[in-house]
Amino acid sequence: MTKIILDTNFLFVPVQFQIDIFEQLNNLLGKAEPIVLSTTIEELESLVEKRSGKIRSQAIMALKLARRCRIIEVEKTPEEGCDDVIVRKAREWNCLVATNDVNMRRKLREAKVATVFMRQRSHLAIEGQVSV
Prior knowledge:
Number of helices: 6
Strand content: 15-25%
Mean pLDDT: 93
Low-confidence stretches: none
CATH superfamily: 5'-nuclease
Number of strands: 6
Shape: globular
Number of domains: 1
Radius of gyration: 14 Å
Order of helices and strands: EHHEHHEHEHEE
């Protein structure tokens, strides 16, 4: 089973584009094990608390989707952001990361971590070398 860490904005994909990310991940990777880090849950909960309107409702839906994944507690150092924790854990566990964030994809490319991202608002694609 291929482990894949989902970041915050990737959890917004089903809400924004009506794509079943779990089905597409399994189609793309065989059998995928979606993972959400505790720092991502905290980030989504913060959006629910501090934002209103569309962003808040999307964050609520993203949290529901995150609960369908394996949630792993992680520690964040004071100098790390959520993205840094994802990059660190992806390298440590030798797994993929699902993100649509351009800057995050660049960081992951530099760290030689394969990514899954949405292409043409209709399907998921892989960038980088996948080792299973």
